Amino acid sequence: xxxxxxxxxxxxxxxxxxxxxxxxxxxxxxxxxxxxxxxxxxxxxxxxxxxxxxxxxxxxxxxxxxxxxxxxxxxxxxxxxxxxxxxxxxxxxxxxxxxxxxxxxxxxxxxxxxxxxxxxxxxxxxxxxxxxxxxxxxxxxxxxxxxxxxxxxxxxxxxxxxxxxxxxxxxxxxxxxxxxxxxxxxxxxxxxxxxxxxxxxxxxxxxxxxxxxxxxxxxxxxxxxxxxxxxxxxxxxxxxxxxxxxxxxxxxxxxxxxxxxxxxxxxxxxxxxxxxxxxxxxxxxxxxxxxxxxxxxxxxxxxxxxxxxxxxxxxxxxxxxxxxxxxxxxxxxxxxxxxxxxxxxxxxxxxxxxxxxxxxxxxxxxxxxxxxxxxxxxxxxxxxxxxxxxxxxxxxxxxxxxxxxxxxxxxxxxxxxxxxxxxxxxxxxxxxxxxxxxxxxxxxxxxxxxxxxxxxxxxxxxxxxxxxxxxxxxxxxxxxxxxxxxxxxxxxxxxxxxxxxxxxxxxxxxxxxxxxxxxxxxxxxxxxxxxxxxxxxxxxxxxxxxxxxxxxxxxx
Length: 556
What we know:
Elements: H1 8-19, E1 23-29, E2 32-37, H2 38-54, E3 62-66, H3 71-82, E4 86-90, H4 96-106, E5 110-113, H5 116-125, E6 131-134, H6 135-139, E7 158-163, E8 173-177, H7 178-195, E9 204-207, H8 214-226, E10 229-233, H9 239-246, E11 250-253, H10 255-272, H11 274-292, H12 302-310, H13 312-320, E12 326-329, H14 336-344, E13 349-353, E14 363-364, E15 383-386, E16 391-395, E17 402-403, H15 407-413, E18 414-415, E19 418-427, E20 433-438, E21 443-444, E22 450-451, H16 453-463, E23 467-473, E24 480-486, H17 490-501, E25 510-516, H18 535-541, H19 543-555
Parallel strand pairs: 1-10, 3-4, 3-5, 5-6, 9-10, 9-11, 11-12, 12-13, 24-25
Antiparallel strand pairs: 1-2, 7-8, 8-17, 13-14, 15-16, 16-19, 18-19, 19-20, 21-22, 23-24
Helix pairs in contact: 1-2, 1-8, 2-3, 4-5, 7-8, 9-13, 11-12, 11-14, 16-17
């Protein structure tokens, strides 16, 4: 079987060896940065490899890794792959019952946990679990030999099983292999070269998203390949402070955090009030008006020019520090209003679109040309087109090898070599894609009209800073209603509904709403591990409230 001349893992080991005493990773702990050099990481990998060899695991067996982000996590992840095993990274904050369900599906030979509490919870829920170990114990193993640096991985070799978020059903294990990764890292590094053009400094990258998610893992490995300095946030309570202290050039983000950052700026300036607030509000209105009128290239206007001198630099400094080049955003569509907000402040937001099944990425914004509300063009070597109902179909070397133990499910998402993403989208003449929603989320009214809920939900959220989520309902009904979480007043929600309805055809208009004070969360089971709404479960849990909405409307 043919092997790659220099696969991604060989290149990572080579880069770490070249780094020597240069720092490649830092754990951010309460404002302090604990560093690991290339040599440090290689030593930890060697210890992890020695530990795995002592347990006589065979090539191709699965090894589960459940732990929070850390240098130790990185070392174990690379060691598992280097030993010819298949790493199965799981989210340490996920419900133990869900973790056990995924582990039973992949039948691991070993489970490595980040702490005793997690290990004990796994054993309690799964008495028949295979051998378990603590990550710290594994890395304290005395290494009898160095980790292999001339790795002979075949392009066809599977190296990881990453479980999907399971928004509408049981999570499935996505199998990714050497060829997927080899191709992807050429694409990600190319885009980052564009972003860092003109700089000879080592990339400084701030990172807080769990490594067990595909996009986050791709960023981690890309940084190791590029010789970047990756700063790993370990305490999300200090996220804002540590982000400023890091002096990063870029970081991977998710829409929900950008929305919070935007709301935080608005709230702070409202509290400040006075002339600063007046400048800010007028500048924002001018900016949005220019974009709406397709006149972004026109003169800025008095208030926008004033804000760029007096207000925006202070906001940028407090938010991200002085080295910043861009925010990189993925995992879900970002509202164009939020992207425009950061662009107004002089902070580029580059969008990435993809699924775990596409090795996390299908499109990436070109840093030299960004269109707000779009996620950029397809990456090199990847083809994309529209299918039935506007569904995005993808073909290329980034497509996964299949779902672990689910051949039928794999066949259901493949069509003549094209992967059916389940996402709706459209592409413009410049090749930039816009993601409009999920095909399965389509609301089909009793009138036969189809309504994609996401654009309307995003528009309402953009007008309701006090709201956390908006979910449209109405399948098999005569009209659309909305569930709104958080603490907005009813009159605020009604105003937002009236504003959004003004530009919608009659069948898309929201006719009623219900406010739910407690936001949807991972803890209450209504969000997936990476923050996506479990719509079916939401509809089920609030079925009585939804029935009351429609019943009240009939009797009104």
